[in-house]
Specification:
three-stranded parallel beta sheet; disordered C terminus; six-stranded parallel beta sheet; 11 strands; alpha/beta
Amino acid sequence: MSDTNSTMSASTAKGCGCNKTAPKFPDQVTGMYVLARALQKVGIDTMYGLVGIPVTEVAYIAQGQGIRFVGFRHEQQAGMAAQTHGYLTGKPGVLLTVSSLGFLNGLTATANATVNCYPMIQISGSSVREPIDLDQGTYEGLDQLNMAKPLVKAAYRVNKAEDIPVGVVRAYRAAVSGRPGGVYLDITTPALGQVLDHDVAEALLQTPVDPCPDMIPSPESVNHDIGLLHYLGAACERAQLMVVGQNPLGHRHRVIWYAGGLHQLLQQILDTGIRGSLAEEKCGLLGGSEQRYSALH
């Protein structure tokens, strides 16, 4: 009986990968090292989150690579900090969470970032895919990718360490390009724990070129808008244009701000003779030197 139990135990350990040897650092590293280095390569210098299995070592390794990790007691607050980071800097704020409940807590902020056009990336560890896809039941066996998809701008899953750099670059580009928003990056436990030779891992890493390409509007649209502004200026001696919160331009003014074009847009408005004022969530975006313009708080 003992021989049978020993055989069954060995078989079980082999099947779940529990008998894998630990990496021999520094000659070997894991997918968590690849993740931290990939984030560093795209220019991420700060992460927010609440660590736990399977992402605890990600935070440690990221700190070792010079990335500041800001820990919280709840993923929702960490996510709000990450989305605020994205709003203020124009670069994606990064949220790191555990699987299942931690993922769900953080998803609130990522969905909010998507609605409000804040660039943000939520990275969560997730369980082995096979038991989830076959509906066999497993520890924290939540299908996180499909839960996130309807609520975020983009969602990607990484199943092996070799694909982590590609996943990070795609998440970064999706978060900041076009209309900014929240992106979910699902990295499975096998990918995080996968052991690679250090030189192989480093060869996977590349500095992305132009991660956020310029979004240039068509000349016809620009000319139409400028013509409309001139028409309004000529039609009314003291015509006024006010942009308050989300209306009437919706998210468009925020995208222009990230693109660095808000000052130029407002100058065109002022050149038409229209008096302009802007109230953007209690955040004045221009100085007070312009006589015909006032930022309302």
